[in-house]
Every structure is written in C-alpha cells, then in structure tokens.
Amino acid sequence: MIKLRYICLAVTACAIVSLSSCSNGTPTANTSPAPSTASSPAQVTEAASHNSHGSKAKININTAILSELDKFEAKLGVPALSNKIQASRPYATPEDLVSKKVITQEQFDQIKDSVTVQEVVLTGEAKDVDYMTKLGLMKGHLFVAQELLDKNQPKQAEPHIGHPVEEIYVDVEDQLNERKVKEFKTTLVSLQDLVKSNPKNAKVKTDFTSSVQAVDGAIAALPESQRSKPGFVLQVINGLLDAANSEYGAAIANGKIAAAIEYQDSRGFVIYANDLYKSISSQVAQTSPDANKAIEASFADLVKVWPSAIPPAQPVKTPDDVTKLVKTIEQNSQQVIDKASTQAQQ
After folding, report:
1. Domain 28-121 -> CATH class
2. Is the pLDDT at 198 greater than 90, yes or no?
3. 44, 10 in Cβ contact below 8 A?
4. At what angle do helices 260-287 and 154-163 cross, to 10 degrees?
5. C-alpha to C-alpha distances, 2 to 61, 90, 124, 158, nearest whole angstrom
6. Cα(first)–Cα(last) distance of the chain, in Å?
7. Is 290 helix (H, G, I), strand (E, B) or coil?
8. How much is the pLDDT for 68?
C-alpha cells in the first residue's frame, strides 16, 4: 500500500498503548470528542505500550497516524483502510466510521472496543516512553531506507525517508521543543528531496548521516540513566514491536507479501527494537534470567522473518506467528517491568 501522508500539528504516535495509573506520570482523559479537524492534538500513543495492568488504550481515529491505523487494516483485512479512515476525518463518534461508509457495521463491530475520538494526555515516564518510541520509529524507517539505498533502490528507500518527517515528526514536535532539541525537520525534508531528485548525488550520504545523528541527538535529550533503565527501555521495545506487528499484518494478504512498504517498515522497527534489547540484556539476565532467555529466543526467531529489506517471494512466517513471538516478548518484558516497579516501591 502506498501511504498517503498528512502534515498536522498533532502529538500522537504509531500504535495502541497502555497507559498506567501506576507510572510516574498519570494520563488524563478528555471526555469530550476530539476537535473536528485532522490537526487536533492527540496524545494517545504507542510508546507506553504496557503497564502493570496490561490494559490497552483505544486508538483515536481523528488523530492516529497511519501506522497506528494499520492495526484496523490488519485485523479486518481491508486494503488501504488506514488511508480511508484518515481521508474521512473528522469523526464526531466512532460510529461515524459506518455512517461515512468507511467500513461496514459488521466490520465496526469487530474493532469498536478499540476505537475512540477522545484524547489522552501523557505525563511523566509515560510521556518520556512515548517520546523515545516515536524517535525509535524514525530510526527504524531510516535504517531500512539506508539498506535500500545501499542496494541501489532509491525509489523504495524514499518512502521510508519520508515517513519520519511526514508521519512522525509532527507528532513529536511539541516534545522536541519542550526538550529544547534543535529542529531537524528541515534536514529530513532535504534528504527526502535529494533522494527523489538525485539519488546518486554524493550529498545523499552526508545528509543521511546528518539525519540519523539528529534523531540520535533528540534521543540523547533523555537522561542516559533513563535510556539505560531496563523497565523504561522495555516499554519502548514493546511499543516498537506493537507497531511492527501491525505493519507486518497489513503487509500480508492471501499468504503473500502484498505491501512491500509495510514489510520494510516492520523490518526496521524489529531490528531497532532488537538492538535496544541487546543494550539492556545483561541487566535483565541478572534480575530475570528466565525472562531474558525467553525474550532473546523470541527475538532470534523474530528477526528471521525479514531476511532482507527486499521482500522474499513468500513470507517466512504468518502474521499470527509474528503476533505470537511479539506477545512472548511483551509478556516476559512485563514481568521484568512489574518486578522493577515492585522493587522500586519497597
């Protein structure tokens, strides 16, 4: 699916989340419908994806980005549904998905428990997890873009350079400003334009390096002690895997890889999530050896699903297989997070 993207001043992210009342920050719900514009600020995000209660927040169909809406596309098996939902905004109620003929009543009944038009504001640690997860999604996109450029596939690489600026930057912009991070949207746009117009230009390499360094600099705005804390990093990892799982589900149709972009998105997210886990695995192994063993084994199987940036002729695993691996990682991660939370309260 070629994604139609939007630019809006919103604060959202790329997947379903769980927001914890037990975290350092408490999410606050606004019970009124979201403002009737696609640019209304939404703060339902994927980043704080799991908490001690294991609950899932609903997706705000007025403000969620395409990667988040891909959850519905994967569940219902409706091609380009994410774009259709986005194009029919605004929604006064979730039921407008049916009245606007985006989906049928039968389809709505399958997802209605995951749909909302309400906003949730993140604070404290949940907000920090959200911030790093969004930047992690950028890293995943850029990683696979680099792979495709290395394979002399600039047309395939271009969307993955575009996604960070067109789908994600607008959602993290307020947080970047709050954290006094130097603006790098211009850098991303410049790189995207150059890859479109002159991909063989030597400046592509330097601009690409500048873009990756800018994202890394934004991540470094978080304290190093927080970025290396297993409980925090695992929440980010779970958010990235949640997004990857949705993208992979949207990529597969009739047992084949029908959408290369979604396949590549999910590859980038999983690879970065795996890299993040490697950075904390030794700490997890000391406190929760069984959980660490299960997580490492699941990651070893998971990364094999994407043998290269160019999709294979046949999927290595089904979306259900990928979901099982992701859930295993999430469940064991949650054990580590809960254990850390309990120890902190003692």
Report:
1. mainly alpha
2. yes
3. no
4. 60
5. 20, 22, 36, 12
6. 50
7. helix
8. 80
